[in-house]
Amino acid sequence: MIDTTFNVYSDTPSGKDPDSYSPTLRKYHQNLWSKTLQNGSIFSLDDKTRMVLHHKSELGEFFLSSDSIGHTYKYTKSMSHIIKNISHEDINAFYKKCSTIGAYIIFPSKKIDNKMTINGARGIHVKIKDRFDLTLECIRRHYINEHSPLEETLKRYSSFFDLFDNFQGYVNFFLLNDLVVENYSLIKYFIPFENFEKDPLPVDVTEYKLYKKNVIDFILARNQRILNDYNNMEL
User: Fold this and answer.
1) Strand runs (DSSP E) across the chain, as ranges?
2) What are residue 181's phi and psi, to 5 degrees?
3) I need a surface site. Which of 6, 146, 164, 177 has the fewest CB within 10 A?
């Protein structure tokens, strides 16, 4: 069973990261993403490797780890002047939504040439700062060979993205449809997007509230897709 209300911090040891230490989150990822690819091949994941999921077949070998795609930025120092103007109740409710399976995805976890993984690169890049909508824009551009802030990192993991054939296949596989327009040509950004020219973090309370609403709406919609997709797999 997949419980889309389950808080992944609830079975994570205090002070640890659910991406590595929540057994339920790991099991959910294994169950959800072990399925048929667009080309008909089966992408099965095993949990025999510590803290990560693993796949090995004629498709290749992949080590994959969880990554959070919902962020409140409540601990981000540069956002403190904004966060202090949002009620604790609102922040906590936001954080709770960001602690459900709909706010998590998997990326390749093994470093290539000792360079940064996707998880690490998108977290520290000044033009991304862990925004998943901007990460998805970079992935969209990767599939059509356009430049992006994560271009070199994504190219290192081309074999992973090749599994899904194209951007539509990637979006459909990971149930990200509510973050793209109907023909997959554009991202539905959490806040207005200016081609990576502005700071990715909200600039004021009004923009933060817009960001918060859109992230929550996406997580709720994705959680519903997760339930529907998993129930269909179970039939």
Assistant:
1) 35-36, 42-43, 53-57, 60-68, 104-108
2) -75, 170
3) 146
Q: Quickly tell me which residue has 């976890």 as its tokens.
A: 109
Phi, psi values for residue 167, rounded to 5°: -60, -40
Closest CA relative to residue 140, chosen from 175, 166, 163 = 166
Encoded amino acid at 76, one letter: T
Residue 95 to residue 89: CA distance in whole angstroms: 10
Tens of pLDDT along 40-54? 999 999 999 988 999
Max distance between CA atoms of the chain, in angstroms, equals 53
Separation of first and last alpha carbons in the chain: 13
Strand locations in 72-172 (E): 104-108
pLDDT number for residue 231: 83
Taken in order 23, 28, 30, 31, the sign of the CA dihedral is positive
Q: What are phi and psi of 113, to 5 degrees?
A: 55, 30
Q: Is 170 exposed, middle or buried (0-12, 13-18, 19+ CB in 10 A)?
A: buried
Q: CA angle, 128 as apex, 122 and 131 as ends, to 5°?
A: 85
Q: Which two tokens stand for residue 43?
A: 């992408």
Residue partners of 213: CB distance under 8 A and separation at least 6 = none
Task: For residue 90, give both structure tokens.
Answer: 């609102």
φ/ψ of residue 214, rounded to 5: -70, -35
DSSP letters spanning 22-53: -HHHHHHHHHHH-EE-TTS-EE--B--STTSE
C-alpha pair distances (Å), 106 with each of 7, 33, 56: 17, 9, 16
